[in-house]
Structures are given as C-alpha cells and as structure tokens.
Amino acid sequence: MTVDEGVDITKTQDRGVLKRIIKEGTGTDTPNPGCQVTVHYTGTLLDGSKFDSSRDRNDPFEFNLGKGSVIRAWDIGVATMKKGEVCVLTCAPEYAYGATGSPPKIPSNATLQFEIEMIDWKVEDLSPGKNKGILRHIIEQGEGNENPNDGALVTVELEGKLASDGKVFDTRTVTFPIGEGSENNICEGVERALEKFLKGEKSRLTIQPKYAFKSEGNSELGVPPNSVVEYTVRLTNFERVKESWAMDGPEKLDQAKIFKEKGTTYFKQNKFQLAIKMYKRVVNLVEDMIEDSSETEESKTQAKEYLVSAHLNLSLVYLKVTPAHHFEAKDHASKALNLDEKNVKGLFRRGQALLGLGEAEQALKDFQKVVEAEPTNKAAANQVIVCRAAIKNQKQKEKALYANMFDKFAKHDTEVEKQRAKEEIDVIGEKVGEWGAGEGEWTDQQRDRKPTEFERENPNILMLDKDGQFSNM
Known about the structure:
- The protein is α+β, with helices and mostly antiparallel strands and 473 residues long.
- The protein contains twelve helices and 15 strands.
- The termini are far apart.
C-alpha cells in the first residue's frame, strides 16, 4: 500500500475502504449510526472521470448514517470523520455498487473514489416526538443486533451529571427491569434509550427535564428541578423477556399473574405510574386470548378474569393520580363493563369518572344500578345524593344563565327599537326640513313652503312643530 492510497478502515482489513485525509477536522467527536449527516462530495472513477458531485449542484447531501441508505463504504467511512474534515474514500466494488454497477455512469465491478467534506451532523434523537428530549451519541459500538425490550432485565454502568455545571450526581453499576427503573432512581430518558442499545454499547445521553427528573428534580441524587442531565451509559448485559406473540396461553397467564401482583404492590405504595405500566402489560398479554379459538375454555375464562380485573384496576388508578384522569378512568371502566355489564366496581368507578367529567345525569344512572344490585352499598347511595345535588345545581345555573340571556336580549331589542325610532325621526326631519339656527323655530322657507307630493299622499304623517314636538300635519 502506498501513502496516497490511504488507510484501510474496514473491520476485516480487506482493503475494501481506504481513507486518505486531505484536511483535518476539528474536535474529537465523530458521527454515530442514527445521526443525520450533511456532506459535500465528488465521485469519480479510477480514471478520474466524474460521475456525480453535490458541489456542482451547490446542494449538500443529507442522509442518516448507518441505516443502509447509502453504499457500505459511506456508512463506514463517514462515521470516522470529524467536523470540517475532507477525505478521499477509495471503495472496492463490494463496498460500492458491486457487479451490477449503476448504469449508465458507473460500470460493473467499478472501484470508486469519493472526495467528501463533513459539514455537520445532528445527534440521534430518541425522544418519542423527535423534540430533542433524548439525544444519543455513541462512544463505543455494541455487538449483535438485539436490543432490550420492555421488561428486559438490564445491567448498566452509568455516570450522571448536570449539564449546567458538569457536577456528577450518580456513578454506579445497577441491574433493573426496563419499565421499572424509577425504583432505582433511573429516569425515563435512560430507559427509553436503553431499548435502542446493543450489548456492550457505550453512549452519551443528553436528556431534557421532561424525560429526566421533571419539575420535581431528585433530592436523593441532588438533581435540582427542571435540570438537563447527561449520562454516560454502558449496557454490559441484558436478558430479553419473551414477546407475547411467542408465548402460549399458560405462559401468558403466568406472566399476567406476575404483572397483576406487581401492579397491586405498586398501587399500595402510591406508585401509580408503575402500577399503570404493570396493569397495561396484563391487558396486552391476555386481551387476544378471549377470542382465540386455539385456547381452551378454561384459559379463556381465566384470561377474561384477568382482563376485567386489569381494566378495573386501571380505572381506579387513573382516579387516584393527581390530577385525576377521568376520561381514561371512564374508558377502562367501560371496557370492563363490556366484558361484565353488571360488575358493580365497573359501574361505581365509571360513575365516579363521569361525575368528574361533569356528566352527573349519566353518573347517576351508574350509581343507581349499583344500589339496585347492592341495596346496602352506602358509598353508592351517597354518590346518588351527590349526583342529584349536582344535577339540581346545574339546572339552577342554567336557569340563571338563560334568565340573564333573556334580559340581555330584551335590552338589546329595546335599544334596537330606540335606534329605529331615532332613524324614523331623522327621516321625518329630512322630509319636513332642517332645523334652523334658532332653537325649535321654523325658517321662513319651511313655514311658507307648499306640501310635498309625499305629504299630500300621507296626510296623517307625524310632523315636528316649532317646539320640537310631534303633531299631525
């Protein structure tokens, strides 16, 4: 290999991609898979003939690195470039367009050269809404092609620090199930990011307060409210949980039991968000079993029991969170009632949700059904009284509102009539003549004039006398 050819940057050292740096870049960072990079390039064959150039078009090229949207040589070579760097990549056919080429400009089995300038890149955004809430910069690539899934048991080495001043607030190795990290002071942003990690990967995460410790901060770790945090995280090991589609009926029921018990434990500890996660896992596991013809009747019955229980519990938790989520509580209670229409817990909780939504009349119907089923249910009887009072109060408000509306309408009509009368007076005044400079006096022209044709045809029209009063002409 001569100096001009450059350095082999392939993992296998098969000389498939040779890199020669023309201009050094700045800093130490390089883009990682998932980043959106912006480059200028010029592509030539080995004989120097140009087949493409973004510079000629004055249009920088953007692509997502490491996602297979460009030839392999680019995914390998661009990942090694620093900001501002200019290099030449010599790409063997198997790392470019192979035996097929790219007619008509690139022939079969062509070795290509690209001069590439790294303009900039955007760090990979892992937040759900792509709002830069969770940014990942890969420091060391992981191995394999599997990621931890929801519920997977992960072991990580991490260091957390405040983005504002670099103060380290957390350094440890910790093992926890994805989705339950808050039990170990792991914020949501780290958990979400870990679902994109490969085993052995080390990455730097920049996490906004929404996905970190929010407006509350974390007094135990010493994180102030509304803090942006940075974590360096290495995923040392993980065990994926079996996906529901890969489980048979008994496995799903066993897992549903575990999640239901976890949800109940978290609920009793007032850890409502964790309880919601657990109960939703129960729903996801068993909701399809009820209509599955391959399941036994016994399994279907047990699945239905778990499903009704999960929806009832979700309804209860949503009523308990602050502020209460009445719509979600109503929705889950209704789903439980679709499976068991006389379920008194479902009726009672839907009634509470409806009352919270201001639908007292509908809530009253649910509470009355509870009382019919359980005449000694004092809680439901009290809610009936509350609903009736709310309905009465609402009707009184509506009555007062309508009365005020009618008063406004009447006042408006009176003003309209006054305005109309004024306009009629103005019209009459124009027909009779204009007032003179003397107050209430007729001009000689007005006094001596002959009646108009209009006035002769309308002898009973009201006219203004010289005192400014109406009189018949």
